[in-house]
Design brief:
- With 286 residues, the protein is an alpha+beta fold.
- The chain has a single domain, classed as Beta Polymerase, domain 2, CATH 3.30.460.
- Helices cover 36% and strands 17% of the residues.
- The protein is built from eight helices and eleven strands.
- The strands form three sheets. Strands 1, 2, 3, 4, 6, 7 and 8 form a seven-stranded mixed beta sheet that branches. A two-stranded antiparallel ribbon has the order 5-11. A two-stranded antiparallel sheet has the order 9-10.
- A hairpin with a 2-residue loop joins strand 9 and strand 10.
- The longest helix is centred in the N-terminal third of the chain and has 21 residues.
- It is globular, with a radius of gyration of 19 Å.
- It starts with 17 loop residues before the first helix and ends in a 9-residue tail after the last strand.
- The N terminus is likely disordered.
């Protein structure tokens, strides 16, 4: 990867994660090429889109990268990964499996390590450095329908957490985790996923990212914001953001999204990597 030779050596590694970010970027550059080759539309999302617009790359203290796709492209991406992915270098971790019970997927790099607190000590698990691949779903037209989608996704997220080493903080989350563990299985689980994804057949005028951390008000966006891609500078390459990225970020983070956060706000940022290594396989740490 001579294209990454620059390695941002001119930057001070204030947060100690430059090498990790460089490996993440290497994965993302592969995904970008892969998507172009197979006619798949993706967008940087969340903090990755914010980093692109505010910093021209990673948010300096961010240790992950997220993209999302609409349901049709997400489904195509999963199928293409299972058939065409460069498996010598990368590993596709598919959603809703024993290995990854969540409703998003990951592309991980072989021969590397990036373990979160819930990943440590897992068996039969690929723990390489990764890029998260999320799914945007078309949303119900009514407010009630949107809330049903949002809370159905919340129950599915809680069920997934109950299958990991996730520790709930607070009585409310503990109760939610217990209820989902007991009730969300079999036909009811399938019904909840149907509620989340059923509008993808109709393509309404609103889209939602429902399996992330955003609150209800910050999870729904006009579908017209995702009518096309804009390629913007991201470190030393160009990656895609939604055509309406400014309005997307305004809804997601508020009107002042381009302002740098305070040190107190930075301290609240949740690190994804408890253990990471750009040169050694994750099994060294299990």
């Amino acid at each position: 990867m001579n294209d990454l030779k620059y390695m941002r050596d001119d930057l001070k590694d204030t947060y100690g994660i430059l090498k990790l970010q460089e490996k993440i970027l290497e994965i993302m550059m592969y995904i970008d090429t892969f998507c172009r080759q197979h006619g798949i539309t993706y967008y940087l999302m969340g903090g990755s889109a914010l980093g692109a617009m505010r910093h021209g790359g990673f948010i300096p203290w961010d240790d992950d990268l997220d993209i999302f796709m609409d349901y049709a492209n997400y489904t195509k991406f999963k199928a293409c990964c299972q058939q065409y992915l460069d498996t010598e270098r990368f590993y596709f971790q598919c959603e809703d499996t024993a290995e990854l019970p969540y409703f998003f997927s990951k592309v991980r790099m072989n021969g590397t390590t990036c373990l979160s607190p819930v990943d440590v000590k897992k068996e039969n698990y690929h723990g390489g450095i990764f890029v998260d691949v999320m799914c945007l779903n078309y949303a119900a037209k009514s407010m009630l329908g949107k809330k049903i989608q949002y809370y159905a996704a919340g129950m599915l997220k809680a069920k997934a957490c109950s299958k990991t080493n996730y520790t709930a903080v607070g009585i409310k989350k503990e109760i939610q985790l217990w209820i989902s563990k007991v009730t969300v299985w079999g036909p009811f689980k399938k019904f909840l996923l149907y509620l989340v994804r059923r509008h993808n057949r109709k393509k309404t005028d609103t889209m939602a990212h429902l399996f992330g951390r955003a609150k209800f008000a910050n999870s729904f966006y006009p579908a017209e914001l995702f009518k096309g891609q804009r390629f913007v500078n991201f470190e030393m390459c160009q990656l895609a953001v939604p055509s309406g990225v400014e309005q997307y970020l305004q809804i997601r983070y508020g009107d002042r999204y381009m302002e740098m956060p305070s040190e107190e706000t930075k301290a609240l940022y949740q690190s994804h990597a408890t253990v990471w290594d750009v040169n050694r396989d994750y099994t060294m740490y299990l």
